[in-house]
Amino acid sequence: MTLDVARIRKDFPILDRRVRGGRPLIYLDSANTSQKPRQVIDAISGFYERHNANIHRATHELSEEATAAYEGARIKVAGFVGARDESEIIFTKNISEAINLVAYSMSNASAGAPAPDRFRLGPGDEIVVTEMEHHSDLVPWQLLCQRTGATLRWFSVTPEGRLDLSGLDGLINERTKLVALVHQSNVLGTVNPVRLIADRAHAVGALVLADAAQSVPHMPVDVQDLGADFVGFTGHKMCGPTGIGVLWARRELLDEMPPFLGGGEMIETVWMDHSTFAPPPHKFEAGTMPIAEAAGLAAAIDYLNETGRESIHAHEQALLGDALTQLTGIDGLRILGPTEPEDRGTAISFEVDGVHPHDVSQVLDELGIAVRAGHHCAWPLHRALGVQASTRASFYLYNTHEEVAALIDGIRQAQKFFGVN
């Protein structure tokens, strides 16, 4: 089904904004954060206006309604990503916290908390990541290795922006305890073969975590098919609110993992000298959780499902093909990563000869075009590709081919302004 983009755009109030002296907003920064449809905004304000109360801790009607909204959101998330049941869904404040949850749980196990050996690390053990990772899926593992004495190893990236899998069997070996990798790169758009890597990791007894922050909003993702043991993503990149993220994990792993944070709600019983913990998912949700945000995330899932995830993906791939074709036609512009749309998402990072990425971004901003410039929280990847920074345009369901054309024209204006065309 072809998307009715004109209708979709009416659902996003911010797209009617005028910026920089009255120019229409062209928002090409959805890999950073997506815009929110009215349905999500209304769900959040409606929760605060009609149902605001804390969850699980009272028997009055408002608390029952708030609990139903929060736990109902968990059920919707489970269905959205193909979880076996909602107890495999942990709510966090973002994907960074979701990844840190796993890292600190393994750290607690390594420090002596009751847990099976597969969660314990020490000298001689290894964690494998990639040069393609967002800092959120790199720094937690660096810190875990520092705390435990484990060694961090990584897949390199080819000049074409793909993972170099030539040494797969040597890199993932009997010393590997965990492999963490991005499903879709926030810089290159590259979609990585998670299943292939996960099968190798499982063959040597290692766990696998997939960062799906950039894939879940843009394509149907089934966690069973993906093959990882842990999958994280975040609400604000999928038309939902900030302040809520998701960790999916296999239930048998959640049963065995020690908790990350202590506090209210995550306990079963408490004495002065020790405590026992609630079963998953509540064992990993200490304190008051993002309740209104969960209601907003549920509305975002409804919106994406009703719009049609396959149709969204097809529309974005058409925009991607158009943008790649036109960008490769600009002299002096280099795309970082794959230049063909196969196994690629809609985040396109590029550099323009003779113009700093921030200057490109500033010229585009003056034209009303919002993009991002910098290292995009992926400093090692930029170093591996031999660049300090890049400009990134990213597309979503509400973008149009006319906006692609405006981007191309804006880049040419930047070249002209700096005298490099």
Offer a few descriptive terms.
single chain, alpha/beta, Aspartate Aminotransferase, domain 1, Aspartate Aminotransferase, domain 2, 2 domains, 14 helices, 17 strands, 16% strand, globular
**How is the CATH topology of the largest domain named?**
Aspartate Aminotransferase, domain 2
Q: Beta-strand percentage?
A: 15-25%
Distance between the termini: 40 Å
CATH architecture of the largest domain, by name, is 3-Layer(aba) Sandwich
Low-confidence segments, given as residue ranges, are none
Q: Which percent range fits the helix content?
A: 25-40%
Mind telling me the CATH class of the largest domain? Alpha Beta
- The number of strands is 17
Number of domains: 2
Sketch the major β-sheet.
7 strands, mixed
Explain what the structure shows.
- With 421 residues, this protein is of the alpha/beta class.
- It has 14 helices and 17 strands.
